[in-house]
């Protein structure tokens, strides 16, 4: 039952990202800024931090693969990156203090890492042609602000929900 | 030494190999998606459809309220243009009849301009905004095929990149991809042919390259599809010229085109099927892909 709930929430985040992109693709936030919603990734990060590493990596891989297939049509990038970042996050949470502020900042930091790595991948595959400065100004900072707002709104409900589902039981 | 080959490192290496293989596989020019991909796309497309209905209802209502504010001004302007419209309409009717008559005389039935449209609603957009793609709610069951042109009431927006049974992905003209090209004409006294390839997303302008250097191109002239790529119908509006530059070797010109559609605000589209079949594969001498 709890996996069903978890999967349902993951699916909602997955679809909501696309609807958000469709609704706010225009000039809603200033002319040439590009805001990328990473809600699903933030869900995976929180799942890793408050659930278990295994769950985080598993959901990361499945959601990443679905994301690749449905949205970008270039297989492998998100599928590989999400579990990898989930693994790094679980490692870093062992060092860091486990309070919600630190968790939010870590999630934001890893969102930034994700965005930069995706940028580099697209440069390599020549699907993007902007310099790093332009990228930082037009994409990275607006994206981080959007996702920070999302993290602030959803961190507490997400934490409570994941803890209530009690996934800690089957850790590693 | 045995520590070096521990499980995690091995797993990492294997997954990097798989990653590279997968990217290579998906970058290939593919005729059709594999069935797991089609299944996933159809499933998420269905879920997206369910969520999209209430959301688009709400946004439609809000948009309607906003429109209501400008109604008075708009009405005034439209009234002023109404007379012009009647005149234009009679002229168009006249020209159409004449065109048909002449076609009849020549016994020429094929027309690159003719197409049959399929209405579709946009149910999603690629959230990672590197590949500008939309998902629409019509697929192979409704006759949507790969490479068909996609238009809105304002003009061309892109082409179908892949189609599954119930959904299709539309690659927008603004998407940066070497294979994303459209053969186009700049209208004017002296028609100029070129290819739409590339997008300046900072200024929001399309680039039309490979126009011969001796063509004089006026600003504000309209750009339409040529229909010579083999797939797109002729005469779909793309936009208008705002700037022209000669390329670095002086052999070609590049025109900057302001698209007639807003690529960031697309809700309803039409997928169009040209009535004249494309060029057969074995024929040679066609100079553009699509």
From TrEMBL, chain B:
Q: Which GO terms describe its biological process?
A: regulation of cell shape
Pfam families documented for this protein: MreC
Which intervals hold domain Rod shape-determining protein MreC beta-barrel core? 122-273
Q: Which protein, by its recorded name, is this?
A: Cell shape-determining protein MreC
Per UniProt, the keywords (alphabetical) are: Cell shape, Coiled coil
Family to which this protein belongs: Belongs to the MreC family.
- Function noted in UniProt: Involved in formation and maintenance of cell shape.
Q: InterPro entries annotated for this entry?
A: Cell/Rod_1 (IPR042177), Cell/Rod_MreC_2 (IPR042175), MreC (IPR007221), MreC_beta-barrel_core (IPR055342)
């Amino acid at each position: 039952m709890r996996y069903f709930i978890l999967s349902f929430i993951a699916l909602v985040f997955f679809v909501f990202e696309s609807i958000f992109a469709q609704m706010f693709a225009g000039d809603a936030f200033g002319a040439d800024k590009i805001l990328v919603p990473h809600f699903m990734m933030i869900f995976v990060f929180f799942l890793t931090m408050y659930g278990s590493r295994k769950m985080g990596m598993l959901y990361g891989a499945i959601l990443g693969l679905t994301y690749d297939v449905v949205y970008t049509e270039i297989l492998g990038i998100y599928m590989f990156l999400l579990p990898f970042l989930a693994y790094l996050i679980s490692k870093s949470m062992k060092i860091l203090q486990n309070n919600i502020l630190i968790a939010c900042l870590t999630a934001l930091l890893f969102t930034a890492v994700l965005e930069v790595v995706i940028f580099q991948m697209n440069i390599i595959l020549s699907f993007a042609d902007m310099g790093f400065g332009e990228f930082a100004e037009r994409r990275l900072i607006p994206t981080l602000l959007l996702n920070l707002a999302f993290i602030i709104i959803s961190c507490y409900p997400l934490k409570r929900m994941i803890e209530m589902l009690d996934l800690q039981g089957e850790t590693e | 030494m045995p520590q070096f080959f521990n499980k995690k490192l091995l797993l990492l290496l294997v997954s990097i190999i798989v990653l590279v293989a997968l990217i290579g596989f998906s970058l290939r020019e593919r005729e059709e998606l594999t069935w797991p991909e089609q299944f996933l796309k159809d499933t998420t497309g269905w879920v997206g459809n369910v969520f999209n209905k209430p959301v688009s209802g709400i946004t439609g209502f809000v948009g309607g309220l906003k429109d209501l504010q400008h109604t008075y001004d708009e009405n005034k302007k439209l009234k002023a243009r109404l007379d012009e419209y009647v005149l234009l309409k009679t002229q168009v009717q006249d020209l159409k009849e004449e065109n048909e008559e002449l076609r009849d005389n020549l016994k020429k039935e094929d027309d690159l301009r003719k197409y049959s449209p399929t209405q579709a609603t946009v149910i999603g957009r690629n959230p990672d905004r590197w590949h500008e793609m939309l998902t629409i709610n019509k697929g192979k069951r409704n006759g949507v095929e790969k490479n068909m042109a996609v238009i809105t009431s304002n003009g061309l927006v892109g082409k179908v990149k892949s189609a599954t049974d119930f959904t299709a992905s539309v690659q927008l003209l603004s998407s940066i991809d070497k294979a994303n090209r459209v053969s186009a004409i700049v209208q004017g006294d002296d028609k100029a042919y070129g290819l739409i390839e590339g997008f300046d997303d900072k200024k929001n302008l399309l680039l039309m390259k490979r126009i011969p250097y001796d063509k004089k191109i006026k600003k504000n002239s309209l750009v339409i599809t040529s229909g010579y790529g083999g797939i797109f119908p002729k005469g779909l509006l793309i936009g208008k010229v705002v700037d022209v530059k000669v390329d670095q070797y002086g052999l070609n010109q590049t025109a900057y085109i302001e698209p007639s559609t807003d690529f960031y605000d697309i809700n309803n589209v039409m997928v169009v099927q040209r009535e004249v079949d494309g060029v057969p594969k074995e024929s040679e001498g066609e100079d553009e892909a699509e």
